Amino acid sequence: xxxxxxxxxxxxxxxxxxxLLEEGYTVIGLDGITDYYDVSLKRRRHALLHRFENxxxxxxxxxxxxxxxxxxxxxTPDMVMHLAGQAGxxxxxxxxxxxxxxxxxxxxxxxxxxxxxxxxxx
Length: 122
Ligand SMILES: NC(=O)c1ccc[n+]([C@@H]2O[C@H](COP(=O)([O-])OP(=O)(O)OC[C@H]3O[C@@H](n4cnc5c(N)ncnc54)[C@H](O)[C@@H]3O)[C@@H](O)[C@H]2O)c1
Known about the structure:
The chain is α/β, with parallel strands linked by helices. It is built from five helices and four strands; from the N terminus they run βαβαβαβαα.
């Protein structure tokens, strides 16, 4: 089973991806490697995940609807675990525009294509 995990260079996404890999899943990682905190830590996390042969990663922001569409089209994930996002409650007060992403119809369609059509996946 191929699982698309967003935020694989982040704290939660990294640990989820590693656990899935240990259990034999194929993991397609996606992260925009934002500079909210130490970028080298994020790159080290991805380097650790790349030790698993069933891990591959894509580096772009979710706002890039075309890139997202291409990943779905080429990699055809069976499941999505969506952990990419701007963390931090206090940060949302300092920089409110960074904590939400405008929903484009294209991106919504991309998500639905994988998530919305399969029973048991949400
Ligand atoms: N860690 C916690 O205790 C906790 C608790 C409650 C909720 N959350 C939420 O869970 C999510 C993940 O938390 P975390 O602790 O792993 O955060 P994190 O910052 O360590 O990881 C998030 C990852 O998402 C990536 N990212 C952010 N915006 C992106 C975008 N638009 N496109 C592509 N990649 C993007 C970042 O580069 C980062 O690597 C966040 O939404 C956070 O608010 C976390």
